[in-house]
Amino acid sequence: MTDSMDGPHDTTSGLVFGRSTGHEQVVFCQDRASGLRAIIAIYSSALGPALGGTRFHPYDTEEEAVADVLNLSRGMAYKNALAGLDHGGGKAVIIGDPTRDKSEVLLRAYGRFVQSLGGRYITACDVGTYVDDMDVVAKECDFVTGRSPENGGAGDSSVLTAYGVFQGMLASAEHRWGAPTLRGRRVGVAGVGKVGRHLVGHLVADGASVVITDVDERAVARVRHEHPEVDFVSDTDALIRIPDLDVYAPCALGGALNDDTVPVLTAAVVCGAANNQLAHPGIEKALAERGVLYAPDYLVNSGGVIQVADERRGFDFERAKRKASGIRATTARIFALADEEGVPPAVAADRLAERRMADVGRLRDIYLQS
């Protein structure tokens, strides 16, 4: 990483630590005075400027941070493509404990690095960063979304993220059980922070029986105060083994679907807000072989990016919500395509996203005379 604010270390052609990743650009940023250590990854700009949030997390190693930002930025490219946005995929991570290391000067230093990319990357909130943080970043940067309404922004993007996941869940219920409702179904939500909390509200309103878990006792207490009828279990392992569970909604960090959890999962549907739920390639096939319907995470959790993308036009919540409502139809389309082609929904979603990136990206080759 760089030693000062003179400029980031720019790794182009997607070559990181000697391996090809397919990314257009990976930027390592460091400002020793503020303690900033960050990595910005741009997977694709085929559809437009890369859009994706900034995660603030205490990674154990730089290699762990790199792996996360590469996976997250790739997922954003596919998410933005399926959401019908004219944005490529990017993501950033700040290495550190947000409760201890976050400061105004660190966030402003980070904003300077984002600004140095000249608009190739547009940032927003993610795990460990909030609306107030984006307001601070914006003091040094023009390419920020997810700002507070008083500063012309869209505010908390978790509102439409949860709404979009719920739309995807309705499509999943219709595909699996023939009716677009969770009424009478048992839904387990793992992680009831920013997004999971709002999702629980939608589920309760729809008549679902909800059971939750979270490592943060305060988050659990808040949800149970708002919805006393919601049940609680101690951890995710207990949640996924509930005998009468119909839907499992991973809404915390990635890797929730892995070689240990898939074999013991009792739910018939998986649909949640967490990014990168599949721990490795092949998990989507294991789910299909067990008869579990998986709603691709980057499809159903795209409501948040739809919201922050709308901010670039002058935010209109109802307009953004209407677009996020389309997640239900897109999810149904993915399930139909998967059945038609005999592949898991995750594969069908990848193919549809790649097709749009290729088809629309090709238009850049058409010369426009100024």
TrEMBL record:
Pathway(s) of this molecule: Amino-acid degradation; L-valine degradation
Enzyme class of the recorded protein, top EC level: oxidoreductase
Organism taxonomic ancestry: Bacteria, Bacillati, Actinomycetota, Actinomycetes, Kitasatosporales
Family, per entry: Belongs to the Glu/Leu/Phe/Val dehydrogenases family.
Listed GO CC annotations: cytoplasm
Main location: cytoplasm
Catalytic activity from the UniProt record: L-valine + NAD(+) + H2O = 3-methyl-2-oxobutanoate + NH4(+) + NADH + H(+)
Protein name: Valine dehydrogenase
Record has Nucleotide-binding as a keyword: yes
Assembly notes: Homodimer.
Enzyme Commission identifier(s): 1.4.1.23
PANTHER family assigned: LEUCINE DEHYDROGENASE (PTHR42722), VALINE DEHYDROGENASE (PTHR42722:SF1)
InterPro entries per record: Aminoacid_DH-like_N_sf, Glu/Leu/Phe/Val/Trp_DH, Glu/Leu/Phe/Val/Trp_DH_C, Glu/Leu/Phe/Val/Trp_DH_dimer, Glu/Leu/Phe/Val_DH_AS, Glu/Phe/Leu/Val/Trp_DH_bac/arc, NAD(P)-bd_dom_sf
Active site: 91
